[in-house]
Specification:
two-stranded antiparallel ribbon; mainly alpha; 70% helix; 2 strands
Length: 172
Amino acid sequence: MNGLAAFTALVVAVALERVAELVVSRRNAAHSLARGGEERGRGHYPFMVALHTGLLVGALGEAWTRRPDPSALLAWTMFALVVAAQALRWWCIAALGRQWNTRVIVVPGAARVTVGPYRLLPHPNYVAVVVEGIALPLVHAAWVTAVVFTTLNGFLLAARIRTEDAALTRLA
């Protein structure tokens, strides 16, 4: 398998992982809403979906259009970071349990999670998002996608973290 085909397979695998996340998210969101959960930050959610879809499409489009020849060191280093980001993301999902979903839903009376990566960082899932947003495109030297996604994601995360922090304040 050549480098471009392997990169395509990696992006498809990440896309399938996203589908698995959405299955878990929808189940957990329904669980939270059934227990009186309130959603916050609905306005930025469609932008988040579009941006994350754009990361996958952009990385593939750039790689297939530009056909860069990344060094093995760059490709393998970025691949290792992609794998680490996925591991961190699923550690976050496991730590949050039924409270994890892709939306901001707070259930009145629920305890704030302070185990797993949440005992170390307030928003570890976003560390995974940032690392993946840089590393995934750079596995195949799609630097334009990495820069554009990271810049737009910075604005999105600023809004998202403000929304989450305000919602989580209600749990205190």
